[in-house]
Each structure stands twice: as structure tokens, then as C-alpha cells.
Amino acid sequence: MKLPIETLQQVHQMLNAIPFLKMLKQGEIEEMALSLNLRHYMKDETIIRQGEPGKLFYLNFKGRVGVYRSKLFGKKQVATIGAGEFFGEIALIENVPRTATVIGLEDGEMFTLARESFEKVLLANPGIATVIRQISETRRAANQEA
Predict the structure, then answer these.
(1) Nearest Cα to 18, choosing from 109, 126, 115?
(2) Taking CA 86 as the corner, what is the angle to CA 11 and CA 18, rounded to the nearest 5 degrees?
(3) What's the pLDDT score for residue 2?
(4) Residues 56-85 pLDDT 10s
């Protein structure tokens, strides 16, 4: 089913606000748009829990989230993710449990993309796959140091 042109244009503008997605072709944007779900999150809401299985990829659209690693005595914030950034990729790329907990630092909005769509649309695009893998490797290394 095709999206109405107005809806597609709005989603296209939103996706183009995310720097690494600008390399997608119109058809890929449309395919991805059909698979995206808009989700609101609240300040202090737990979005991802460390250790759980990963089923979704997240594109943060508005607001900020904090990334935390569990430690022996509590948790440590290892990153802040703002608008136009993504998270949740490590579990999907490496097929491992979530490596960190993600909590809303303020009210915001994000798009979620199921694993199947993530693999089909994003990892099938060599340029985007390279960017996601490079960022994933950097985050993985930072998580292990934290």
C-alpha cells in the first residue's frame, strides 16, 4: 500500500533530517517509511533494558536519551543521544542481548524499525551499512571501557 503523497513528503523530510539517511533513494525512503512506527517517550522512561533481546532499531527524532551501562554498584551514563541520532544497532548487527539501558532524558519522539526492515533497508545499502557498523564498533568499544 502506498502512502499518501503528503504523508510521504512529511516522513521524507523527517528522515532527511537524520544525516546518514540522506543517501537513501526515494524508493528506499518510501519502503522505510512504510515500516517506521512513530513512538513518543517521556522523561525518565526506560526505552531499552540492558540484557534484553534486541528487536527494534531506533531513530531519535526529538529530545534526548541517556545510554547507561550497569556496573557492580549501580549504573554509569556512557552517552547521550540527541535528535538525528540512532541507537539499538549493536544487538541487531551482532545478534546479542542489549548492551546498555536507554532512558529518556526529556520528553521526545523517535521512529522504530523492526529487525527485518532494518536488515532489508539499511544494511542492504552499502553506504549506510558502513556508517552504522563503524558507529556500532565505536560504541561497542566505549561500552566495554565503561
Answers:
(1) 109
(2) 40
(3) 55
(4) 999 888 899 999 998 778 888 999 999 888
Residue 1 has pLDDT above 70, yes or no: no
- Output the nine-digit C-alpha cell for 8: 510521504
Q: Which helix (H) or strand (E) holds 32?
A: helix 26-35
Decide if 67 contacts 89 (C-beta within 8 A). no
CATH of domain 38-145: 2.60.120.10
Picking from 67, 46, 64, the residue whose alpha carbon sits closest to that of residue 106 is: 64
| pLDDT on residue 15 | 74
Domain boundaries, the chain: 38-145
Q: How far apart are CA 60 and CA 112, in angstroms?
A: 9
d(CA 2, CA 24): 18
What is the C-alpha to C-alpha distance for residues 95 and 99, in angstroms, rounded to an integer? 11
